[in-house]
Records
---
Amino acid sequence: MPHRRTRLLVAAELPVVILIAPALLFPTPARLGVLAVVPVLWLAARVVTGHTLPPTPMNTAIQALLIMVGVSLVATPDLQFSLGKVSGVILGALFFWAVARWLTTPQRLHTAATVFLLAGTGLALIGLLGVVDSNKLAALSAITSRLPLRIRGVPGAEDGFNPNAVSGCLVLFLPFQFALVATGVRHALESYSRNPWSSRWPVVAQLALIVVTGGTLLLMQSRGAWVGLLVAGLAFMLWHSRWTRLTAAVGAGAVAMLIVCFGSAIEVDRVVGRSGAGINDTVSGRSEIWTRAIYDIEDEPFTGMGMNTFRRMVPLVGPSRSIREGTDVAHAHNHLLQAALDLGIPGVVAYAAIWIVTAALLITVYRRAAEPIHRVMAGGLGAGLIAHFMFGMTDAIPLGAKVGILYWLTLALCVGLHRLAVADQN
């Protein structure tokens, strides 16, 4: 029987990963020494559970991704410049496995869901106090310009947080919040006749979280995040029931009629013109960035150019029609292209595999879960991930970014939900 101290080490895995997270979020070669504790934790887990890593359907894809992170170190021209993103991916994987190992009971799943909701609201509040105004829509900029910029000087975001990055993460949370609120309202109405106060306050609290998260997402003025949520909403309507599918079909028909009546070119120009300042430059600039990214992937298809290296290479290419001199092009504005740039074709295959496995897990829960709340959670998490994926097609939160830890938390919650809702019932 394993020694009591060994079992305590296994139980301490998640707290330990949280404790070493600051050193990995803001890494230096010396700070990476904290990783020495990881083999100790995994050895203890092997003794107690028989598994070094918690068995999850994503392990193969994540391990392949980490291997390509190691391969990218050979290709990177500046290890120090890549270190932050490399360390961020390692932290994300460690955090995923620690949460996945911990999520073993319904009570812990409830706790994790609560933490997930609060994490989204916390990110929204941090965004309000530290985001740089994007000046896209005058009406919203009039509000954001009055907000105090309290959080500054964070390494990598010295002047404030990028509103697109904040928005790209917020879309992970908003559909989940909506799903739980809708369920809570229905249960509150059903139980109101028995006890009017029994379930009112949880619903009120969740509504308050939605107001904070949704309001912040609106003020961030990220058109990519808004489009991502729209696509997620349409996907949910097509999936949920025949009535929602009928509603989506009627809406699509109405849009088609407008295009036929008024002309597609005129309507597109009108929509683009009303979508905020600089959108034409944004579209042309992204097209040029995507073209450059594809050329760079062709140059280094197997190893990638190294994590975060594209950011340094863009200014060296020469003058550009759409990218002004001195502009910091932090990424390829497409998460699949960025993964291929960082880690090569094998790396983007591993990254895509994580998405595919996640989708399969959530679909299985939605179809087979016995508990209705598990289906609700799967729908909310799935819609948030769809929105996040679509946001990443015109923008990106690169692998290893600091806020990317929230993506890994979402993946761990999906794995835990699948284990408790489906796998353990077989």
---
Amino acid sequence: MAARRTKTKVIIDTDIGDDIDDAIALAFALGCPELDILGVTVVYGDVETRAKIARKLTRSWGRDDIPVRMGFERPLGFEWFPGTVPEPCSQRAAVVAGPPVGDDARDAHQFIADCVRRHPGEVTVITLGAMTNVAAALCAEPGLADQMAGVVSGAGAALPARSRGLDWNVAYDVLAAAAIALSGVPWTIVSGNALGRRNSLKRAEFDALAASGLPSAELLLDLIVLMKRNKRGQDPSVRTIQDVTSASTCDVMVPASLLAADRIELRRGRIEADAEAGCLRFSPDGGGPHQWACARPEEPSWRGEILRRLLSAPKRV
């Protein structure tokens, strides 16, 4: 009899509700039987709306068992980095009539710490936005870093020897990124194209999702439309998914990196947070505590695999 494969225990920490790649990444993770999602924590700005969106998405997959927790609304240093004051959540209309989350769910950093202590050495925290919740958990309990399996973060501007400049997920809370770097926790940075380029969902994927009849797919398409219509810099004339040409899947590559380590190049080194530039600096070091996930130029698109996972939600009868 074949040995049963052990699932990877993860917590997904996200600023879902602004760009659409967070929602697609969460849906992708829900479609991964390799992942045991212990909970979803939300961060940055209107955390109640973010929690409602995360909860609605997990429930559309029939996963009422996954806890959703609200975290920090502001960065650890309280002041916003220039240009990072939160906008209203673009997808708020999807949950405006939904039930409240409840103040008893405002414990994201404590929830992270509790899960890690309950499963020492087994929990990987996936961060798809500001890293405030994770940094707060590590700062509150310094010994927690030794009990985490690791932190895997989407922070696409990190380069081997320099940075391209401001990275949103770092600039949202530079102090939090610095705290994680100094904590000693195993930390991997994953850029948006680490598993291949050309991964955005397009018309063929939208049509497949629409034809599936899945409540989860219907909700995801609604969230895509709302983001395209309401987010600053997008197109307010968008009314239906037929008006949308593509949707970014950058954050999908973060959970996907846990499933396809053989398809990415991991470079070991040391990461530092640049407080002035709002980005990360990476220095190669074979004995360093951190890793940077590099794209292989020949790696094909993951669009088909992303769609397969998004279509794996159970149908309601």
